[in-house]
Specification:
By secondary structure, this protein is an alpha/beta fold. Helices cover 40% and strands 16% of the residues. Helix 4 (124-152) links the parallel strand 4 (105-109) and strand 5 (156-161).
Length: 245
C-alpha cells in the first residue's frame, strides 16, 4: 500500500518537462556572461537557434572587469542586428523566421555592462549609445516579435533582466547600465501586465547575482521546461531565499 502511494505521489509531484529539438528559438541580448549561460541552456534543448547581440560600445574603465565575449555554439548562428534601427529589428525578425522556419520562442536577455560614471562626466556619445543600443533596441525588437506572434496566434516571449542596479567604485552610480535595465524592466512589466489578453505567452525572470549566471540560467530553464509553470504574465524571481518564487 505504501509503495503504491509513494509511486502515485512521485507521478503527481514530478515536474513535467518538455525538450523540443525542432523548436525555433531566437536569443537576443547584451554581450555578457549571462547571455552566454542562457545560450548554453538553449543549446541543450534545440537542434538550431539564432542569436542576436548588442555589443558593448561604452568605454570600459581601466579598473573595470572585462566584458565576456559572446560565442555562438555549433547549433546556433549569429544574425546581424543594428540595435538602434527599427528597420534592422524587422529584418532580424524576418531573418530568424527564414533560418529557423518559424520563431516559437524569443528569449531577450538584458544584462547591460557596468559602467560607473558621475552624471556630470557623461559624454554626449555615451548618452546616444545608451538611447540607441540599450533602450530603443528592445522596443523595436519586441514590437516586431509581438506582431509575429499575434499573426500566428501563438508564441512565447521570455524576458530576463537584473533586479537592481549596481554601484561602482567609491559608490559611483552605474547611471548608464542602471538606466538601460530600468527601461527594459518597465517594458517587461508592461508586457507581463497585458499578457492575459494576448494569444502568446509572456514570462519574466529577474534576480541572480554577478558571477552566478550559470545557476540563474539553469533556474530559468527549469521553469520553462516545466509545462506546469507556464503561466502567462508571471514574473519568476531567483534569489538565495529560494529557487522557485
Amino acid at each position: 500500500m505504501y509503495g503504491s502511494l509513494h509511486r502515485w505521489l512521485d507521478t503527481v509531484c514530478r515536474p513535467v518537462y518538455t525538450v523540443t529539438m525542432d523548436k525555433g528559438i531566437l536569443l537576443a541580448g547584451n554581450t555578457s556572461a549571462l547571455l552566454n549561460a542562457v545560450e548554453i541552456e538553449v543549446a541543450k534543448r534545440v537542434a538550431r537557434y539564432a542569436v542576436a547581440v548588442i555589443p558593448n560600445r561604452f568605454p570600459v574603465p581601466d579598473e573595470g572587469q572585462p566584458v565576456a565575449d559572446t560565442s555562438v555554439g555549433k547549433a546556433g548562428f549569429l544574425l546581424d542586428w543594428n540595435p538602434g534601427s527599427a528597420v534592422s529589428a524587422r529584418t532580424l525578425a524576418l531573418a530568424a523566421e527564414n533560418r529557423l522556419g518559424r520563431v516559437d520562442e524569443a528569449i531577450l536577455v538584458c544584462s547591460p555592462p557596468l559602467i560607473p560614471c558621475a552624471v556630470a562626466d557623461l559624454k554626449p556619445l555615451d548618452i546616444e549609445v545608451l538611447a540607441s543600443d540599450h533602450v530603443k533596441s528592445w522596443f523595436f525588437l519586441v514590437k516586431e516579435l509581438v506582431a509575429g506572434f499575434k499573426a500566428r496566434g501563438q508564441g512565447s516571449l521570455v524576458l530576463v533582466y537584473p533586479e537592481n542596479g549596481a554601484g561602482g567604485k567609491d559608490n559611483t552610480a552605474d547611471v548608464l547600465g542602471s538606466a538601460s535595465a530600468a527601461s527594459f524592466r518597465a517594458l517587461a512589466q508592461g508586457l507581463l501586465a497585458s499578457a492575459t489578453d494576448e494569444p502568446y505567452l509572456v514570462q519574466g525572470f529577474t534576480g541572480g547575482e554577478v558571477g552566478n549566471d550559470a545557476a540563474f540560467a539553469n533556474f530559468i530553464f527549469r521553469q520553462l521546461d516545466d509545462i506546469r509553470r507556464r503561466v502567462s504574465g508571471k514574473l519568476h524571481k531567483y534569489g538565495k531565499a529560494g529557487f522557485f518564487k
